[in-house]
Amino acid sequence: MNLPEHCNSVTPSPQEDEARLARTDPLTGLPNRLALEEYLPLALEQAMQRQQVMAVGIIDMDDFKSLNDSLGRDKGDAVLTELTLRLKSNLGEENFLARLEGDEFVVIFNALVGDDVPNELKNRLERLHCAVESPFMLSESDEPLTIGMTMGLALYPEDGRRPRELLRKADAALYQAKVHKHDQPEWWHWGPIPSSSPSIEPPFDPFGEDATQSLGAVQSHLDRIGNDFFGFFYASLQQQSTPSKILQCLTPDEWKKLLETQANYLKNLISPQSTVESITARATQLGQVHALVGISGSWLTRAMSTYWGIFRRHLDTLPLMTRERHKIMRAVAARLLLDVEVQLDHIQLVMDKYNVHLSVPPLIHGRKKQSELDDLASLPGILACQILRPNTQGSFSIERSSGTLSSELTRILGTPGMHPLLDTRVPAGQGLIASAWHTGQVQTSNAYGQDPRTQVWQPFFLPLGVRSAVAIPIRGTQDIESILVLIGRYPHQFAVDWIQTFITSLQNRWHQISVTYHTVTRSPDTPNSSFYRKLLHSNGLKMFVQPVLDLHTGNLVKIEALARLVDPSGQVIPPNEFIPALRASDLTTLFLQGLEQCLGLIQTSRENGQEVHVALNLPPSTLLHPECAMWIDENLRKHAVLPQQLTLELLEDQEFDIHEVDRAMKRLNRLGVQLAIDDLGSGYSSLQRFSDFPFDIIKIDRSILKNLSSDPIKTLKLIRTMIQIGQDFERTVIVEGLENIDIIEVVTLLGGRFGQGYALARPMPIRALKSWTCPIDFSLATQNTFQSYLGALAYYWRHLRFDPTTPQFFAPPPETCPLRSFLLRHPLENKIGITHLEVLSTPNSPDKYQESSNRLRQWLLERIG
């Protein structure tokens, strides 16, 4: 068929690869539900254009759950994998095969043409069934396995013209095939009534007076069916992996309520007083619940098949005339079929609503983050959704919120003692939000009331109907920026396979939003925009500072100024919260107010006998203002500050014309202020532009160091290369992100001279700078010594790596080798490393040097890991 194929391109882009993975079943490699939902409408359109018949089949393996539980999941997966290969080989290229979940597959038979479509379809079905006609050999030690499969069929255009309608009827036909498995000769069934059923004279209304009277006569007997059904069916479910996980999410009270509710549901289903409308209404609600807790269509048909078998056994024990028994069977079968069809329809409808949410491109046509959140909160089963970020008080603040419980949850989380915290030593820091932030992994609570991580909030959340939750870490351009929390109405809601796929797509969607949000036109309509702008224009800006030190001497060489807003209550608001709310004019106000405070700091320090240099961020929109250089010059003169005492860090923005940016930077250069670039290798900082324009300072961003522990060699290469580039161009290099003494050792040993980070000083109010002292003793820094294996690896990388271009190279003599001195502090632990180092310290062949150098590197990596 001339339809999009589910396959790999020759050289897929990351976006293509991501799209392919989202549409592929990870176990079998088949197209998944999303791929089927994209394929089926196209196939129907083509069948319509060519006036062809098309068949939609849903396959369910016979008793596969029991087989899977007895053999174990690994062998069950092996059966499914082997079955997939057999089905594909017997299906033919013109057809389509997808796996929905578990042991449920969908087959699309395309291009059924000619005068004998039934025979053509029958031939294809018989060929397909060959996939299970030979035993499955899992291993030499296992007995051969024989399994069967059952299919429900629906045909286009006879049974429907819409994808969902055909799938629903195929599922209903599968139900009938399961019910009448032993009453029909074929392994498939087409149509709602089995061909082997007795001929029943119409008309018969399953809700009419005749049916009502027949059901009423045996109602007291039929009401007892529920006990037998629940005892058998739930005992079976508890032996199966996924259903048992759902049941384990229930408290004893919830379990008792479930049994009572379902008993009443089944009684109402066959009650003489029930109507089409009442059954449809209850099935609509139950279909939604089943979709959200993970009850699949195959489980639903299996449950109804079990109930039908128990019903028939009970009915056979009653002293009824054949005609009367047959009327009761027809009435109950019609009600069961109606119930199943409505439930299946609404299971699919719930899934469709979730998929539609993902189909709308984010942040287009003026859409805001709040609109995204509102749409998400309107999905079935979602009670509330929130975006949270860490604040300077060590807790998480709610940035945005939506949903029916939004206001109440916000009020609770704002109560003292209820704030989710970053500190994992206390219970409020052990919840889903903090765990998602620290681990970078999605955190799910399938049974909120039984989860020890949620104990702090359970007394307040459970009475509101909260039964599940998920915390999704959202990454920005470099690292995690926020946590998206969804609150669920039902237990196990966020563990359902298709919802987990939705969560993955949702995480990618919000990553895209986070990355692109700052490039769309900023709007004053975000919730706190007006507040932030009023605060900025009411002297709410307070510049914090972070020292930059000489890593050889520990001397203060520069101070970086960092913008903060402080509200009337004293709460400090970080820039990632208020910067997106500011217009270009607000950003200019922010810069000028910050410049005033920075130059005031320089002036005050001079009066106290200390000369300091200060660095300040310059927004791109302000840089391009024609009066920017004049504003800076006037303020320098006002405070009698030398231009070279001020460093302007240029924040890149691809929206602005590069030539205009160059002209603006040259105006600043003529003033004599220092210019710094943040991230060598991108934007302003391309090497060509760096060589063309006289930047004074290179800042190595903290993101460069984030993989130092997980991928040290690659990170060491990158740091050393960037430091070397700065030195080659005779620029000052400042390394950000010095979070501990080990990182400081690494940067120093790789040639870095200047740095800043939490190990040296955290951002602090200007008034705190006077009493600040560096917590680290730098007296040994110039002696090329180190205290950590990470430092030892850095020394090795710079000084002891084997270089084939210098075959006469060997390590310094033992008495002058700092690495040897470091290893000899613990000679027994470091015996292997000392042995490799001794080879490098004596003349040897190049091959011997290379072998020992590589072994020393690997040994150091193992010590770090």
Kindly summarize this structure in a few lines:
The protein is α/β, with parallel strands linked by helices and 865 residues long. The longest helix has 38 residues, at 322-359.
Can you give a write-up of this model?
The chain has 31 helices and 20 strands. The chain is 47% helix and 14% strand. Residues 4-10, 193-202 and 518-525 have low confidence and may be disordered. It is elongated and about 110 Å long.
Topology, please?
Blueprint: H1 14-22, H2 33-50, E1 53-61, H3 64-71, H4 73-91, E2 96-101, E3 104-112, H5 117-129, E4 149-156, H6 163-179, E5 188-190, H7 209-222, H8 225-237, H9 241-248, H10 252-269, H11 276-293, H12 297-316, H13 322-359, H14 369-377, E6 382-390, E7 396-402, H15 406-413, H16 432-439, E8 443-445, H17 458-461, E9 468-475, E10 480-488, H18 497-516, H19 529-536, E11 541-550, E12 556-566, E13 572-573, H20 575-578, H21 584-607, E14 614-618, H22 620-623, H23 628-638, E15 646-650, H24 658-671, E16 674-677, H25 687-692, E17 697-700, H26 712-728, E18 732-735, H27 741-749, E19 754-755, E20 764-765, H28 789-800, H29 818-823, H30 831-840, H31 846-864
Helix pairs in contact: 3-4, 4-5, 6-12, 6-13, 7-13, 8-12, 11-13, 12-13, 13-18, 21-23, 26-28, 27-28, 28-31, 30-31
Q: Could you tell me the mean pLDDT? A: 83
The share of residues in extended strands comes to: 5-15%
Helix count equals 31
Count all strands and give the number: 20
Strand count, sense and barrel status of the largest sheet are: 8 strands, mixed, barrel
Structural class from helices and strands?
A: alpha/beta
Judging from the principal axes of the Cα atoms, what is the shape? elongated
Low-confidence stretches: 4-10, 193-202, 518-525
Strand order of the largest sheet: 11-12-14-15-16-17-18-19
Q: What is the distance, rounded to the nearest whole angstrom, between the alpha carbons of the first and last residues?
A: 53 Å
Helix content: 40-55%
The value of Rg in angstroms is: 35 Å
